[in-house]
Amino acid sequence: MNKLIKKIGLELEMPLVQQDGLAAGFDDVEKLLQDFSEQGWSKKFDPNTEALISVGRETSEGLEVVSTDVGVCTLEVALAPVNSIDEAIKYWHDFKSSVLLPKIKNNHLKVLGYGTQPISAQLQDLISKKGHHIIWKNMIEEDSKEWIFQNFPGICSVQFNFQVSKEKTLEITNTFLQLLAFLWAASANDSIAASKKLPYKSQRFYAYLKIARGRMYCRSGLTIKPYLSLCDYINRTWSVSLFEIIRDGRNLYPQDMSLTTNKFINEKSAYFYSLDGILSQQKIELEDLKLAIYLYWPDFRLKFNFYPEIQYADLVSAVHSNNDEKLLELIEYMILEVRPIAMQSNEEELSWMIFSYLIIENLESISEYASLWTYQDVKSAVIAAQNNGLRQSINGKNLGEIGLDLLAKIPKDSFQMYEQYLSKLDFRCREYCSPGDDASRIFEDRGMEMLLDYLTIKC
After folding, report:
1. Percent of the chain beyond pLDDT 90?
2. Reduced 3-state DSSP string for 243-256
3. Residue 201: which residues within 8 A CB-CB, separation 6 or more?
4. pLDDT at 144 over 90
5. How large is the C-alpha radius of gyration of the chain?
6. What is the C-alpha to C-alpha distance for residues 124 and 121, in angstroms, rounded to an integer?
């Protein structure tokens, strides 16, 4: 195991559909979760709505959770962290074949290796009954609401959580930011939605642009610029409108929708509404600071796991004085979450986890290569690639060629070890063809029924 990576965790968000491919509804999901609970999984209910929202079980590795995301038609599986990439690969294959797919089949459902719901167009009635998402709905600005509520409940991704060296976290994160245009273009796998071919490569990327408006500005998707320090990262999370706080397990949202965590820190208290409309004054707490950091969804999210004995004043002092050395003394470990990858189909569902792992493993050479272009170049290329895909260029080199250069920087023995996963990426870079391009071709040539068969996750 590379010394930069201590643990690897895998989260998969998959379109959950009925046998005909239409999005699964509340009854379907409740029956599925009940099926898990009958096999010994513990149930979790939302304290605000009393809805069943997830099931979980403790294993020798840690906690496994099956839940839904923004929409109940998105099934989310979070596996416990493991110590190596090979363990992570085996873990997913074993869990998929022996636990997940039998339960799915038993409930006459299926899950897709895809980034959005391909058939159902009316998803606004499938938003999960979680207090967190009720607040999320209230945060969306009016000019984005209709599109977001129709589409976001069905958007899915595969996310990797790497527990990385605290001292290298900033360099690792900024290196991934420099590769963002390539990652978005090469992994796009959500080009068909509501039975139509989309005018852009990735609905997930388009959703990030839509949601990153108004009070959600700077909270989701593309970052403004690379991070200057770990304190800079936290300070950005504290400078956006505060999303929520939690008291006695219940979600509260601010009366002043422009309230930031930094303003909350300065004023020491503020007024918050419960979901049933009761207004109360709340003093700021250490857990509010931590939650504000967590409720931030850029393309690469940092999760700060602080020592349990840290003090409120010490965290505020370290961040506001931009003292990374002091901040690091408060952190037990850190996790980098790679977020821009749409859920992938059967052959490639783990390819991006392995590629991301190898980027970190070969950080020095890849970081040097990625520094050849500015982050402004990257942001421009990310947006242009929504039309041009892997043929989009940065400073005279297209994204497909950049992908081949990155693969060439992986040592030969590592490439050979994971060739079955990396060879498809190599092919895509040479052919300028993302999974979304494949989906569009199958849909146009052979129809939705064949596309569903192609996308259905199998053992």
Report:
1. 91
2. CCEEECCEEEEECC
3. 184, 185, 188, 191, 385, 386, 387, 389, 434, 436, 437
4. no
5. 21
6. 9
